[in-house]
């Protein structure tokens, strides 16, 4: 090998092979972010009585989503965005309890949610208006009024 030669000359006949194989290896190698030792919980929060029929539903923004687990120190909380979307990343694998809350709606608790290593779990949840919100401010009075009125 000559002194001061280019690096491609020093690699010899392997250079064309490496140039062909290296890009393929980079495509097949999993990214470090995809396998970080945690799991992800994500989903959409829905208003289950939003339309004219009982089966209508639309996205519900502003829902507080809280997860607790023995695998997690304390609790983690996020609020669903304007599209009802929420995402809790970097959750240690384990069994979780997920709580969905928003003012004017009945809260919802889902137990035994399994978050797995390097997996994303999607939980779309619907909330119903609370009894007080359905009746309105004076609804209880009207509901309890005598039938003849």
CATH architecture of the domain at 39-131: Sandwich
Q: What name is given to the CATH topology of the domain at 39-131?
A: Immunoglobulin-like
Low-pLDDT windows of residues: 25-34, 137-149
- What is the total tally of β strands? 9
Question: Into which percent range does the helicity of residues fall?
Answer: 10-25%
Q: What is the distance, rounded to the nearest whole angstrom, between the alpha carbons of the first and last residues? A: 106 Å
Mean of residue pLDDT values: 77
Main sheet characteristics: 5 strands, mixed
Radius of gyration: 27 Å
Structural class: alpha+beta
What's the SSE pattern?
HHEEEEEEEEEHH
Count of individual helical segments: 4
For the record, the CATH class of the domain at 39-131 is: Mainly Beta
Estimate the strand proportion.
25-35%
CATH homologous superfamily caption of the domain at 39-131 = Carboxypeptidase-like, regulatory domain
| Shape, principal axes of CA atoms | elongated
Topology:
Blueprint: H1 7-10, H2 14-28, E1 39-47, E2 58-59, E3 64-68, E4 75-79, E5 85-91, E6 94-101, E7 108-115, E8 120-122, E9 125-127, H3 131-135, H4 139-143
Parallel strand pairs: 1-8, 1-9
Antiparallel strand pairs: 1-2, 1-5, 3-4, 3-6, 6-7
Explained architecture:
With 149 residues, the protein is an alpha+beta fold. The protein has a domain at 39-131: Immunoglobulin-like (Sandwich). Helix content is 19%, strand content 34%. The protein has 4 helices and 9 strands. The strands form 2 sheets. Strands 1, 2, 5, 8 and 9 form a 5-stranded mixed beta sheet that branches. The longest helix is centred in the first third of the chain and has 15 residues, at 14-28. The N and C termini lie far apart (106 Å). The relative contact order is 0.18.
């Amino acid at each position: 090998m000559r002194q001061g030669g280019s690096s491609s000359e020093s690699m010899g006949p392997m250079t064309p092979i490496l140039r062909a194989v290296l890009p393929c290896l980079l495509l097949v190698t999993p990214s470090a972010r995809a396998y970080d030792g945690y799991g992800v919980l994500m989903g959409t929060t829905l208003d289950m009585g939003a339309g004219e029929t009982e089966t209508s539903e639309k996205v519900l923004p502003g829902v507080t989503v809280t997860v607790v687990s023995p695998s997690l120190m304390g609790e983690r909380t996020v609020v669903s965005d304007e599209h009802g979307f929420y995402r809790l990343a970097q959750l240690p694998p384990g069994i979780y309890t997920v709580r969905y809350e928003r003012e004017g709606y009945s809260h919802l608790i889902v137990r035994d949610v399994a978050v797995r290593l390097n997996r994303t779990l999607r939980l779309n949840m619907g909330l119903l208006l609370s009894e007080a919100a359905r009746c309105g401010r004076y609804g209880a009075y009207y509901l309890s009024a005598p039938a003849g009125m």
